[in-house]
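Dear colleagues,

As part of the handover before I leave the project, I'm documenting each prediction I ran so the next person doesn't have to rerun anything. This entry is a single chain, and its sequence is reproduced below.
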Amino acid sequence: MRIAMVSEHASPLAALGGVDAGGQNVHVAALASELAKAGHQVAVYTRRDDPSLPDQVEMLPGVHVVHVPAGPADHLPKDELVPYMPEFGRWLARAWGQGTLPDVVHSHFWMSGLAALEAARMVRVPVVHTFHALGSVKRRHQGARDTSPVGRVDAETRIARRADLVIATCSDEVAELRRLGVPDTHVTVVPCGVDVQRFSPSPEGAGEPDAGHAHQLLCVGRLVERKGVDTVIEALAALPGTELVIAGGPPAHRLGDDPEARRLRELADRLGVGRRVRFLGSVPHARMPDVIRAADVVVATPWYEPFGIVPLEAAACGRPVVASAVGGMLDTVEHGATGLLVPPRDAAAVAQALQTLLADPALRSRFGARARRRAVARYGWDRVARATERAYAPLVAACGAGEATA
């Protein structure tokens, strides 16, 4: 198949270098790579945000990244990109009309959906869409602090109804789309993936906590309030002899200037656990497996989470997880088998779950081993790519049949 991926603000090239690489960058890079390994030709279209960028880059054999001129060739916050999506879409239509049409277009994030559907209005090509996050969920949980452009929820509803297929990343997203009026028959679930070669269990003897602490917990993610790290700090008061390591946010030398890092430190000091909370700052993706392996339990307790890649990375490393029962973690964490699910913003429940795991090394080992097997069987990028291929196939076949009878 000739596959066009549209990822307007998240270039897969950033994922390779690790700088400014978020979940969407990694997802698009890994999925494109695996599809190319399966023999497909993949072109990823992302917005040109630097005038020095070449028009096209071969990322890997079978994967090309195309820099689309839409708006100023400068870095812009993604919330400011909406006005340039019609231009992005028209450029795609011209490029495909003058060359070879892709067999399928897969857009990532709602603004990419706007561009892909604008192009599909002018050239006949099936469009598959993955939201990665839904504005309706963000607005529900962030309220007035939601910085999304006006009209995002309405636009997402239109995209979901106009795309030929929506690939949701978890069952919770299917339920949310249903609330927006999108029928289940228009949606299929293909989860996000994890690199199960890079994220793998540690050799014997690795993962020892720092001297002076019996156990080590790990939280990973951006330092924003909705990630719920404060809930873990509150739980730490009931876990003597346990250290909490927090990975994420700005570089270590700039943590003192970060409002959320300061708030969390002040909370830890106020609760008397400040000496048992350690901030690492930003950690290169290549180092994350070692950081995860050093923990006895990985804790992920956001208020809401569209998918949540950290529990998958922990599972691949053979580490049990305590996670909020929200979003994608309802699928990725098998309660009572690979980890424990708790209500969001419930420090007492987090403490109780952690006490259960920290008191029983054999239980942690069983959970970790099952988590690893489940990660390989369900969430390896090879499995995700095959499921994505299966989602594309009927649309490509139907489009080909339509052309044959035209």
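The domain at 215-379 is CATH 3.40.50.2000 (Rossmann fold). The longest strand covers residues 41-47.

All the best with the project,
I.
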